[in-house]
Amino acid sequence: MFNLLKGMTVVEGAAFIAGPSCGLYLSQMGANVIRFDAIGGGPDSKRWPIGDQGQSLYWEGLNKGKRSIALNLGRPEGRELAQRLATSGDGLFVTNFPVNGFLSYDALSALRSDLICLRVMGWSDGSPAVDYTVNASVGLPYMTGPADDTRPVNHVLPAWDLLAGGYG
């Protein structure tokens, strides 16, 4: 672990790979990353592979080195706490949640005008995407597989999501 970002606090509200990998990389560089999820875990908290204790190894791997808090995001009070957390500290918020709603830039910047909100999204218009669809659209399946086989082969590594998180 490096301490290039020691003293910096980043709040993360994200799921799946691109957003959480961004927070992971920032944490590995020394930032204090505080993650929030819904009570019971985020939408990806039970994703395989599952360890002997029933925990998602995938989820644990992407969230190591972060502090976390569970909020009842189904209630107005929980959403308000998430907004206050997202705009606290150094004013750095990483997310890949939907563009509109209580975590929108407009809603958050009304609480803190100097907020820096990094929204790691699938497409430039803010619509969602998953790694496999992006991989296919840029031709990655044609670059994988046996050298003597011209058929496209999908791979299990979410390379595009990991690159997006690193770019963030």
Task: Please give a handful of descriptors for the protein shown.
6 helices, 168 residues, Rossmann fold, five-stranded parallel β-sheet
Number of separate structural domains: 1
Share in helix: 25-40%
Element order: H for helix, E for strand: EHEHEHEHEHH
Give, in spatial order, the strands making up the sheet with the most strands.
Answer: 3-2-1-4-5
| Distinct helical segment count | 6
Gross morphology? globular
The proportion of residues in beta strands is 5-15%
What's the multimeric state? single chain
Which CATH class applies here? Answer: Alpha Beta
Category from helices, strands and their pairing: alpha/beta
CATH superfamily: Crotonobetainyl-coa:carnitine coa-transferase, domain 1
Q: Over the alpha carbons, how many angstroms does the gyration radius reach?
A: 17 Å
Instruction: Give the N-terminus to C-terminus distance in angstroms.
Output: 19 Å
Low-pLDDT runs: none
CATH architectural name: 3-Layer(aba) Sandwich
CATH topology: Rossmann fold
The total strand number stands at 5
What is the average per-residue confidence, as pLDDT, rounded to a whole number? 89
The major pleated sheet works out as: 5 strands, parallel
